[in-house]
Amino acid sequence: MKNIVTITLNPALDLTGTLDRLNQGSVSLVNESAFHAAGKGVNVARVLKELGANVTVTGFLGKDNQEMFCQLFDHIDVNDQFIRVEGATRINVKLVEHDKSVSDINFPGVAVTEEDKHRFENTLLELAKSHDLFVLAGSLPRGVTPLECANWIEMLTKLGKKVVFDSSREALVHGIQSSPWLIKPNEEELGYLVNQPLSSVEACINAAAALDDLIAESQPAKSSLPIQDSLPTENIASIERAKPVESSKPIESAKPIENLVISLGADGVLWRRDDYWLHSTPPKVDIVSTVGAGDTLVAGMCWGHLNQWDDEQTLSFATALSALAVSQVGVGVPDLNTVTSLQHNITIKRISKL
After folding, report:
1. Sequence spans of domains, the chain
2. What's the angle, vertex CA 193, arms to CA 283 and CA 268, rounded to 5?
3. Angle subtended at Cα 169 by Cα 246 and Cα 224, rounded to the nearest 5 degrees
4. Residue 51: which residues within 8 A CB-CB, separation 6 or more?
5. Distance, CA of 131 to CA of 174 (rounded, Å)
6. Cβ neighbours for 336, distance < 8 A, ≥ 6 positions apart
7. Which residues are within 8 A (CB) of 142 and not within 5 positions of it... i.e. 6 or more apart?
8. What is the secondary structure of 100-167 as a DSSP string?
9. Residue pLDDT tens, the chain, 354 long
């Protein structure tokens, strides 16, 4: 059975508007708009369900405006295991200009209580009895620290589960120390981890080696890792200097990431294997919107794993799926034949480790 759980700790109602040009500091007129339930894990779930997976969704969802999420989950037929919390799920604004540039205005989200987190952890433990693959994607809501998120990854990993972790900044800094099975940073997110800008394939490959060194060198604090507000933003090596939270459980160890997938945008995808890299290059497509492209890439990698495809087939499919995503409005797979056609035009090159 192709069973998978997607976790969205901080979902959002996305308000998307297309306009000719965003006039900062003055009035901008929107040509078209859309309002829909979203969040990185929700997007991954939608794509995987359309591909044919059996999907369970969980995370934290505000009680006050859950209707659009409930309608979506019912419409795409996924198992809804979201924890309902007090308050309203956030609204995020995405403004897409004529030149395809996107401006995001992301709000902080609901406030999660200790009781909410306890219920969520119990849900994860229950789902772990019948699922082996989990996708934890997106940002953190108020009340959830990067350390707590990392501990959930560690909990699932210790139960023998594979965890795909797709987040950024402090959450990613902590999460990679819990040895997730796969992470998918883009160039900017990987550059943040190693504290340097990245602008080439070679730079990304070198940064991956530097990331391994930083993970190996970082030592868990005696009582815990630091909380979000006190974490320095320079790089992962700063973790030791931050203030610990005595009440939180420490992370015991850190291992290199088994699957490091780097999204390069129009330049394709890098995937690190045991002793080499795979670099996929997609065909040129007319870009309509990049919203959801990264989530679609994650879904494609998961689908390849669920089908036990070889590395090249998995990467070419995931790259084709992501290429289709940028050529359309909205998240989903309207036509698998188009994905197959794109897949035939993707080149994959093997690169020896530097």
Report:
1. 1-144
2. 5
3. 15
4. 299, 303, 333, 336
5. 24
6. 51
7. 108, 109, 110, 111, 112
8. S-EEEE----PBPPHHHHHHHHHHHHHHTTT-SEEEEES---BT--HHHHHHHHHHHHHTT-EEEEE-
9. 689 999 999 999 989 888 899 888 889 899 988 888 999 999 999 999 999 999 999 999 999 999 999 999 999 999 999 999 999 999 999 888 888 788 888 888 899 999 999 999 999 999 999 999 999 999 999 999 999 999 999 999 999 999 999 998 899 999 999 999 999 999 999 999 998 888 899 999 999 999 988 888 765 433 333 333 333 334 434 333 233 333 344 445 567 789 999 999 889 999 999 889 999 998 888 777 677 889 999 999 999 999 999 999 999 999 999 988 877 766 777 778 888 888 999 999 999 876
Which of the following is catalytic: 64, 295, 310, 311? 295
Output the six-digit token pair for 5. Answer: 């759980």
| One-letter amino acid for residue 49 of the chain | K
* Contact criterion met (CB below 8 Å) for 207 and 228: no
Who's near 260: CB < 8 A, 6+ residues apart?
Answer: 182, 183, 208, 211, 270, 271, 272
The total of other beta-carbon atoms located within 10 Å of residue 318's CB is: 29
Torsion sign across C-alpha atoms 278, 279, 283, 286: positive
- Tell me which amino acid residue 42 is: V
Instruction: Say how far apart CA 290 and CA 76 lie, in whole Å.
Output: 22
Residue type, 229: D
Beta bridge partners of 349: 279
Q: 319: phi > 0 → left, psi -120 to 50 → alpha, else beta; which? A: alpha
Please state the separation of Cα 129 from the chain's center in Å. 23
CA 232, CA 210: separation in Å to the nearest integer? 19
**CATH 3.40.1190.20 corresponds to the domain 1-144:** yes
Distances (CA, A) of 141 to 56, 70, 165, 212: 20, 20, 16, 28
With a CB cutoff of 8 Å and minimum separation 6, the contacts of 39 are 8, 10, 11, 12, 59, 137, 138
Q: Read off the tokens for 290.
A: 């990049």
The secondary structure element, H or E, covering residue 338 is: helix 336-344
Please confirm, yes or no, whether 295 is among the known catalytic residues.
Answer: yes
